Amino acid sequence: MNLTEIKNIFYIELENLYPKTEIESFFYLLTEDFIGLKRVDIALDPKYKIDKILQQKFISALAKLKNEYPIQYIIGKTEFYGLPFKVNNDVLIPRPETEELVQWVINETQEKRKKKKGLTLLDIGTGSGCIAIALAKNLPDAEVWALDISDKALKIAKENAKLNTVNIQFLNENILKVEKLSVKFDIIISNPPYVRELEKSKIQNNVLLNEPHLALFVKDEDPLLFYDKIAGHALEILNQNGMLFFEINQDFGKGIVKLLKEKGFQNIELKKDIFGVDRMVKADLHK
Ligand code: GLN
Fold first, then answer.
1. What is residue 11's three-state secondary structure?
2. Average pLDDT over every residue of 54-76
3. How many angstroms is it from 141 CA to the middle of ligand 1?
4. Residue 115, pLDDT above cutoff 90
5. Which residue of 96, 201, 214, 225 has the fewest CB atoms within a 10 Å radius of its CB?
6. Of 130, 149, 175, 195, best ligand 1 pocket probe by most atoms within 8 Å of the beta carbon
7. Closest Cα to residue 55, out of 31, 21, 26?
8. Taking a C-beta distance cutoff of 8 angstroms, is the pair 76, 160 a contact?
């Protein structure tokens, strides 16, 4: 078989599930991963012959895509903020909205970084480590810590820190249970679980059936649980003039602003993402 034949099989088998451009992008991600060939290489040699073993790999990837298994888990990697990340189904696949949060943290801390070298940062619920690592890479003199309840997620986050040659202090803790964190920080960031169980029917199968529910879902009765706990800890462990950044559920912008106000945070700012919905919040703490 040659690559054009395989590509045609992909188009036929996946056409009811994905748009054509997406099928194309799956195919090229696989050719790059399996054979190291990029799109231009294939354009130059569309009849590139593949042996039985490779054929088998394409067919097995095709079967997974038919089951709506995410391409990032099939190839075991993705990109976030222009950096490479390993992923498996112990961690959420990094989202573009979260890149916007990272960008906001970098912009908003510019003044602070001029005044103080070596800011300390904590990412709560780090998962693949994408927020902590992208920040460590872009704020070279910061000291970055990252916490997660899942030791399996931390294993991936540690591999990602190595892959991106950054130094991160990892903590294996349940933020809902931990009593006291003994380190102080200038900036705390978190993208905690924020999807309510009742929203499950709106979630696509590729997410619902494959990504870790531990990282996604909160109980309908207490959707701001993580925000309440994390903001509570932040009052204790943020330094004077510290900052708190959250990624949020689009339905809870006002609720989270209110919660932060009640806890005593100042300059609370709600920000929309590229899709035009409330997606992140920033607050200062002047004690
Ligand atoms: N934005 C993610 C999603 O929609 C949810 C991330 C989270 O719960 N922190 O799947």
1. helix
2. 97
3. 29
4. no
5. 201
6. 195
7. 31
8. no
